[in-house]
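Record pair follows.
FIRST:
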Amino acid sequence: MPQTADDLDAVAVRTWCSLALDALGREREAIDAINVYPVADGDTGTNLYLTAESAAAAVEAVFTAHETGTSVPSTADAVRAMAHGALIGARGNSGTILAQLLRGMAGVLAESAGPDRLGLALERAAASAREAVAHPVEGTVLTVATAAAEAAGRTGAGAGAGAVARAAYEGARIALEATPGQLAVLGRAGVVDAGGRGLVAVLGALVEAVSGRAPERLATGPTAPAAPAPFTAAGDCPAADDPEGGPAFEVIYLLEAGDEAVERLRARLDALGDSLVVVGGDGLWNVHVHVDDAGAAVEAGVEAGRPYRIRITHFAADRLHARPEPAQRAVVVVVPGDGLGGLCAEAGATTVLARPGEPPASGELVDAIRRAHAREVVLLPNDADLRHTAAAAAEQARAEGIRVALIPTRAAVQGIAALAVHEADRSFDEDVVAMTAAAGATRYAELAVAERQSWTMAGICQTGDILGLIDGDVAVIGQDVPTTARSVLDRMLAAGGELVTLVLGEDIPDALAATLEEHVREGYLAVDTVVYRGGHQCAPLLIGVE
């Protein structure tokens, strides 16, 4: 449970970012599903998640930099990192507006983070977000942000940060429920505003971070349109009430430029297209616009300063539901060690290395999907904790026209099993079904070394004990690797099995593999064993039973 904090200190900011990322991960698909105005592009939840992920990563980086010392970062360091991370990682209009909301809050909280400042921070956030949007529309996330700020302002002097945050959350929730009556297209579809729903999730995380108690998850209207809306363009900000109209391109870039140059840029881009949002300051900006002439939008940025990280999305194919027939298929696999990376690469997969304590971000997964140069991609995350990250990466790749199937593998041995039955010659759906079945039929286990005394499902472990985890839960506590491994194998094979897969860590001798192979051969007839070298990885031993 998060620690209670009457001030929004650095630890509370870190907790808030983490909780917000989890909340948006849970809500991502539901938010994507209700994104109907003005185009049903279905990416608002994904864009918000990716933006929050970048903010959280930036805050973690600040804490990592302080790990060698005895102090934690200052609140100013934490909120500035959060705002900067959101700015450089903002996706879509929803993410860009969220970045400006966080920047507005950071500007106030960096000066002082007392309870009385949180209400002012929310007020500044709502105002700065409106200033960033060229043509604000009511019934959107801007309305929800304003309502949150107004509710926070009514708490009065002396209210704690928890009370202010909860008031903001309740104000936002009530405003969100009213959005269908403010925007006709939402009313017709029977849904609330998607961006506003994302903001409510972020504010709910803020309540939990500062009070230690999560607000009750209240209903926020239907989770899907009452009737299917036409699938049109990528980009989630109001531009027009005609879902079939609108410019052909979404253009996004970071820009290094002065304030005066950016004001001129705003005017030029507003004349070129719609859905214009420019956020940032202090020389660094995030620019988002929908235009018919993408080249002109980029040229305008060049005239204003130095644009980079330029992303251009062509809407036309999505508007026409045009999907080219796949020319090839690839598999992208997250691996916990270089040995498994080589094994999967030999099988034709594109690999992403998960280093100990450094799980890949969604951007790395998207880059790997692009690097695979295929129109159809099967993504194997091989880690339960990567489920939201992988899902966000898959959505981003789909928005770029790549057909992606995410198989929710929870361990590397499940990924190996899936890859073993992969056949590019059969249909995509058949291949995905076969790979999913193979992964699902594989139980997984790993050995780990206890870092401290702790309660577990198998009892109390001491520092240095060898833990045998089966399907993610501690099932065996032992004193050495060989004995613990045999106990884990016996428990897993008691339920049956035909094939045992052993993946040895860097420091595990080949003799252990021989010992375990003999144990399986003597105790379990007709069960085969295969052994791989995993290289440098978190676990000394990975075990799979199919």
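SECOND:
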Amino acid sequence: MGGLTEANLKSLSGVRSFERGLGYLDAVSGVEIGDGWVTATVHGTERYEVELTLHGPGGLSGECDCPYGLEGNFCKHLVALGLTVLAQRESLPRQRKAAQDRVQDLDAWLSALSKDELLALLREQIADDRQLRRRLELRAACARDDLAGVRARIHELLDIGPFARCGCVEYADARAYADQAGQAVSAIGALTRSGRAADAITLARSAMKLLAEAVESVDDSDGWLGQVGSALADAHLDACRTERPAPEGLARWLVGHVLGDLDDLTGVDPLDYEDVLGERGMSALRKLAIEAWRCNRTGWAEKDLMERLAKAGGDIDTIIAVHAADLAPNGHTHLVVARELDNARRPDEALRWAERGMLEAGDLSIVDTALVDYLCDRYAQAGRLSDAVAVRRDHFGARCSLLAYQQLRAAARAADCWSTVREGALAVLRAEAGRRHVGWYGGQVLVDVLLDDKDVDAAWRTATETGADDRQWLTLADQGRATRPADSLGVYLRLAESLTKQTGNAVYEQLVGLLQSIRDCHRRLGTPDEFTAYVTALRTTQKRKRNLMRLMDEHDL
């Protein structure tokens, strides 16, 4: 076990998972040690099975069936097992020898039993273990070629009844149900391997329907049934590759499945069946997809299937036709088409689609900003800087936001016309501010814009006339403190007064920051004694706030 070290555990898990694993040392039980592996059970939110594996000198990996571990992460439960094993390092050889002896003893005892004794033992286990009984019933039905029996057993395995409470399978029982449902998938795969792929196809499709019905009543927050659905899709594909069903019939089933309600769970991809369908089947698949799309041009599933088939065949014109049949009013679909045309090396058509998107959007306040960015980038690349400015100006006029102003400024500076464009943009914001009450959206954006331009005096005048929020007043005071210390002092005092009525360390840090700014203003004004009197009075009224007093001491306030 040389590769199992505390350093390796910390490196694989990260600091946070390692530290959390320290809290699970008492939750580790049932440690078993083999040749290069260690398994155990760790009790967390649920009971999780964990396994550590050594790979030569220094190599270490692990698996855990907790949600975090199933994503491929080295989780806290693996850390707990590793640390437990390290704490028991001296006893490891003895534990391993004991485990091997137990296996050998059990094997020897079973080998010595007669057939009748083994059957009696097995019947005893079947009586106590429902899942074992169902697995064996399924294997028995497969062995005697009893398709009806296999179907009945699969129906039982997918039945939520034994796990449901008030008609639903709760989170705590979802894993157990998914494990049972997984046995049905295994049975279907076994049918294919035993030369009964046609039956496997039939049963896989039936199981997909049953699983889709079941998932509506299961709290599958951890995605266990999603994994079962994916495995079921794989089993169906394997059976089809073995059996080679009629291409047209398979194409018809695939289209019906993908456009139905079952695909969300199984994720069946018709393109995975291309080798089974062959040229004739793919032709039928495309024909059926087109017919379905023509009947419902705005259906998401129909559009997605058409687009995927068209992309697989390199048919850019079909992709455009699919999107053109259902254009979004904000121009997003136009942008999608433009990018597809760019990828197909048809830039002129791509530009026309982007321009069309801007024209057809109508209300530029809701247009997809990515479309605006795309069009302006294309104009800039072509040297059409004035056109880029025009688009940015129209977009800014509709949005009146700080970001739109910044983008307009960048475009106008590139075109060397910012001074003229800026006056027009500010006029738009002033008109917006004039139409609204003080402190509303227009006035605040105008203040932000002027601050962004470093025009502090104009920003201060605007804030006084049209209103500003506390964030803007604080920025104004910070930027104007050197030239307007008296005005800034008034802002800081007002904001500080509000904070003195609140509690919490975050509030205290903000208040101390304001006190430092207030002290700087008094220094600039030549009134340090006034600051001393202010702080003395503040300490008197706030003396019960010990954390605030400590922070003030740390900053010499």
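COMMENT: The radius of gyration is 35 Å.
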